[in-house]
Design a protein that fits this description.
Organism (chain B): Flavobacterium ginsenosidimutans
Protein name (chain B): RNA polymerase sigma factor
Keywords (chain B): DNA-binding, Sigma factor, Transcription, Transcription regulation
Strand content of chain A: under 5%
Distance between the termini of chain B: 49 Å
Helix content of chain A: over 70%
InterPro entries (chain B): RNA_pol_sigma-70-like, RNA_pol_sigma-70_dom, RNA_pol_sigma70_ECF_CS, RNA_pol_sigma70_r2, RNA_pol_sigma70_r4_t2, RNA_pol_sigma_r2, RNA_pol_sigma_r3/r4-like, WH-like_DNA-bd_sf
Family (chain B): Belongs to the sigma-70 factor family. ECF subfamily.
Largest interface: A-B, 38 and 57 residues
Distance between the termini of chain A: 25 Å
Structural class of chain A: mainly alpha
Number of domains of chain A: 2
Oligomer: heterodimer
Order of helices and strands of chain B: HHHHHHHH
CATH topology of chain B: Butyryl-CoA Dehydrogenase, subunit A, domain 3
Chain lengths: ~200, ~160
C-alpha cells in the first residue's frame, strides 16, 4: 500500500455492528414464505376451475342448440386458460432464475425475463380481450336470437359497449402502467450490466 | 455443511455486504435474511463445484441486485427511518462514512469492494461477479482510489 492509501478500509469495514437474528426467526420466515407461495398458486387455479365449472354447468344445464354457443364457450375458457398458463409460466421462470449464477449472468437473465414480460403483457392482454369478446358474442347469439329485436340489440349493445370501454380505456391504461414500471426496470438493469463492461 | 453452521459463519459477512449495498440497517437485515432463505432452499443443489463461500456470496450479491426492483416498488419512506438512525448513531462516524460512500458507488462496484473488504481473494471475486481477474484488480484499485479521495475531502471539511 502506498502512502496515499493509508486508510485501513478493511478495519473500518469490519467494525460495522452486526446483530445476528436467532435462527428460529429465520426458519419461521421460511415457513411463512412457503405458505404464501402455495396460497397464490391455489387462488389463481381455484378461480380458473370455478369459472370453468360454471361455464360447463351452463352448457349441461341449458343444453345449447347452436354450434356458435359451444364455440363461444370454448373460446372463452380457452382465453382464460391460455392467459393463466402463460402468466404462471412467466412467474415460474422468474422464480426459478438461477440465484447461484455470476452477477453478470444473473443480470442478463433478469433483463431477458423483463423483456419477455414486457412483450407478453402487451400481446397477451390484447389477445385475451379479443378472444373473450369473440367468445362472449358467439355465446350470446343463441339467446339473443330468441329475444325481440330491441332486446337483442340492447343486450349486444350493452355488452359491446362494456367491451369497448375495456379495450379503449382499461386496456391501454393497464398496459401503460405496467410498461412504465417494466421499462424503468429494464433500463436500470441494463445500466448496471453496463457497469461490468466498462 | 449444515445450514445452521453456514448461518453462524456467514451471517456477519453477508450482512455487511448488504449493508454496503443499501446503507440502511433494516433493509440490510432484510436482504441478509432473504439471502439465507435462498441458501436454505438451494442448499441441496450445492455440488461443491465452487467453494461454499463463493456460492453464498453469489446468492447474496444477486439478491442485492434483485432488490433494485423492490426498491422501486416500495419507496424507502415506508421503512421505519428513525429506527435505523437510532442504531447507527452508536457507530463511529468513520465507519458510517465508509458505508455511505460505498452505497453511493455504482451497484456492481459496491459488490466488488464489499467482497474485497471481506478479504475474499480476487480470483474468487472474479468468479462471483463474472469478470476476469485482471478486470477485478483494476476495478478494486479504482474504487479504493475513489474512496480514499472521498475520505480526504471529508477530513478537510
Amino acid at each position: 500500500m502506498n502512502n496515499d492509501n493509508n486508510i485501513d478500509f478493511k478495519d473500518l469495514w469490519k467494525k460495522q455492528s452486526v446483530s445476528q437474528p436467532d435462527i428460529q426467526d429465520l426458519l419461521a420466515r421460511v415457513g411463512k414464505f412457503k405458505k404464501a407461495a402455495l396460497r397464490s398458486l391455489w387462488i389463481s387455479n381455484i378461480l380458473l376451475c370455478l369459472t370453468s365449472a360454471f361455464i360447463v354447468f351452463i352448457w349441461i344445464y341449458y343444453q345449447p342448440q347452436f354450434i356458435s354457443t359451444k364455440i363461444g364457450i370454448v373460446l372463452t375458457i380457452l382465453a382464460m386458460v391460455i392467459y393463466l398458463f402463460v402468466y404462471n409460466k412467466l412467474l415460474r421462470s422468474y422464480k426459478n432464475i438461477d440465484a447461484t449464477a455470476t452477477n453478470q449472468e444473473y443480470l442478463q437473465k433478469l433483463i431477458f425475463i423483463k423483456k419477455k414480460q414486457q412483450f407478453m403483457q402487451t400481446k397477451m392482454m390484447s389477445f385475451y380481450f379479443v378472444f373473450l369478446t369473440i367468445g362472449i358474442c358467439l355465446y350470446m347469439y343463441e339467446y339473443a336470437s330468441r329475444m325481440s329485436v330491441l332486446g337483442a340489440s340492447l343486450t349486444y349493445g350493452i355488452t359491446l359497449l362494456w367491451m369497448m370501454f375495456n379495450w379503449f380505456y382499461i386496456r391501454p391504461k393497464q398496459i401503460k402502467k405496467q410498461q412504465d414500471k417494466i421499462n424503468g426496470l429494464i433500463e436500470k438493469f441494463e445500466e448496471v450490466n453496463h457497469q461490468l463492461e466498462s | 455443511m449444515e445450514f445452521e453452521q453456514i448461518y453462524k459463519t456467514y451471517w456477519d459477512r453477508i450482512f455487511r455486504l448488504c449493508m454496503g449495498f443499501v446503507n440502511d440497517y433494516d433493509a440490510a437485515q432484510d436482504l441478509a435474511q432473504e439471502t439465507f432463505i435462498i441458501v436454505w432452499q438451494k442448499l441441496e443443489t450445492f455440488r461443491n463445484e465452487s467453494a461454499i463461500g463463493t456460492w453464498i456470496f453469489r446468492i447474496a450479491s444477486n439478491n442485492c441486485l434483485r432488490q433494485i426492483e423492490k426498491q422501486k416498488r416500495f419507496p424507502k419512506s415506508e421503512l421505519p427511518v428513525h429506527l435505523s438512525e437510532e442504531k447507527q448513531t452508536s457507530l463511529e462516524p468513520q465507519i458510517q462514512f465508509l458505508y455511505k460512500c460505498i452505497a453511493e458507488l455504482p451497484e456492481t462496484d459496491r459488490i466488488i469492494i464489499s467482497l474485497e473488504l471481506e478479504d475474499i481473494k480476487q480470483n474468487e471475486i472474479a468468479k462471483i461477479v463474472g469478470l476476469s481477474e485482471a478486470n477485478v484488480r483494476v476495478k478494486i484499485h479504482r474504487i479504493k482510489e475513489k474512496l480514499t479521495q472521498k475520505f480526504k475531502e471529508n477530513e478537510q471539511r
